[in-house]
Amino acid sequence: MSVRDDFQPQWKLALKWGWLAFAVFILMAPTFYTVYISFNELGFGAKYYIFTFQWYESVFSDRQLIGALGWTMLLALITLPIVIPFGLLSAKLYKQSSKKVWIVFVLLSPLFVPADILASALLVFFKNLNKFFTFIADFTGFYALESWFDLGIMTAVIGLIVYTLPYVFVVIMITMARYRNEQTEAARDLGASAWRAFWEIEFPQIRAGVFSACAFVVILTFNEYTRTSLLKGGFDTFTSVLISQMLNTGMSEESYAMASIVSLVAIIIVSSILIFTALRSEELEKVTRKVKEPNK
Amino acid sequence: MIVFFVIPLALTVVWSVFERTMFWMEPAFTLFSYENFFFSSRLENFLSSMMHSSISVVCAFFIGFPIAIFIRRRVKKVAQHRVMLLFILPFMVSEIIRIFALRPILSRNGVVNSFLMDMNIIDSPISIFVFTPTGVVIGEIVSFLPFMIFSTFLALEAIPNYIFEVCSDLGVNRKRMFLDIFFPLAAPGLFAGSVFIFVNGIGIALIPTILGGPGSVNAGLIATQAIIALDFPLAMAVSAIMMFTLMGLLYIGHRLFNLTKLLEPIS
User: Fold this and answer.
1) Cβ of B61 under 8 Å from any chain A Cβ?
2) Which of A129, A229, B49, B246 could hold B218 in an S-S bridge, CB 3.0 to 4.6 Å?
3) Which residues of chain B, if any, have pLDDT below 50?
4) Chain B, window 2-31: residues with a beta carbon less than 8 angstroms from a chain A beta carbon
């Protein structure tokens, strides 16, 4: 239970809620504005507003945007099966390890390193790796390694893994916090293998966190610009198309519509996860209360 | 993470002393890139971006800290996380979309100026909201405020309720409660949030590019411009300076506040 001050005037409480709502509104205002413009037949900067779905209909005829969307989806689909197991293993390692400071440092510091700085460092790192492998290939005659780290899908995926792993780690950690390790120990005592104990006992209880982490990875991949644009090589991603339009010719109405679709899809996915987890945790609390106090 | 995060960042120090060639760099030991950074207008730009980031940190503190305290103190325990999650939603929308949409909102003919003029608060449009340092500060606050709220709330969440109850029973006034309880106990979260905003403020090129106008440059922009100009040692020198700034701040923060405490509620 939170501590509540019964003597606080209602207007003060309302004022504080108002401040909170105002902050959320300000943070969401740019997104709302993008959605608002996307429904205007006259587009951005027009004096009048005529509601239309026209731009949404024509979004799918913009080949550049659709192509970029396809590349971005491909990046997300490749990143996902790599980063989720990494996140799971990292969370388990963190829980079992006594040297938590180092694990936290390595896993969470990418959150603090600005995108441009990390992307620049990775770009030079990959170029150097390429030179190194070319030298090895020339020296040994084994040319399969030669262009491994050419800028392309693999380097972009590596950049995305470094970017998304901290988020996956934190989301999985939050769900793992509720899991009691004694359950795994009991399963192991009864003869289950480590994998079976994880898959049949632990995983069902942290499944919600794992799926949430998957959703986060896809959304973050769609939102990421700097790392992917420096590391992707020759193809376009959704955000690189948007930014080139924004800075060079100004955003087209189709881009507003596409930005709105991506934003709204992200908001709907995250809201659904939040509502689902909130309902589930309430249900779990009810069950726990019933077990603790069966007569109530 | 060690191969693709720690090593590349650590190697920036090595690459920063390499010599620049026409399209790449070659092993050498020269401090030319650092001279190029410290004895040019780049240093001035870097320092002014530090100042803007510091202003953003202070603004985010005054906006975000009361919100985190309010959620921790006044919202029911079961609803606290749900209210916090309201601040996740803006984070899930692309930063590019959020930052770029601020342009039409804050411009001379934008939504804010139109609203203020319609309400007769101002007579003529205010032009300092975009393409100025103020625009950069606004962009940084809109982009990074949720992180200040998350990290502070996480620190406050670790405070047991009985502390508030004891204070309430002893009749501790609000000022002392803030100075003696909230502020020191939320310090790890405040510090983590501040470092995040400060470092990203000086390191993310997108915000000054879109909202800052022609003279607005930060470390991230210097690094990316150096890469475009194929001056890789300079880009690596800027990265190394940023990395040392970040590591120094995190080390001081960890020594002072033990930042791993922040993860206690979820571990």
Assistant:
1) no
2) B49
3) none
4) 2, 4-9, 11-12, 15, 24
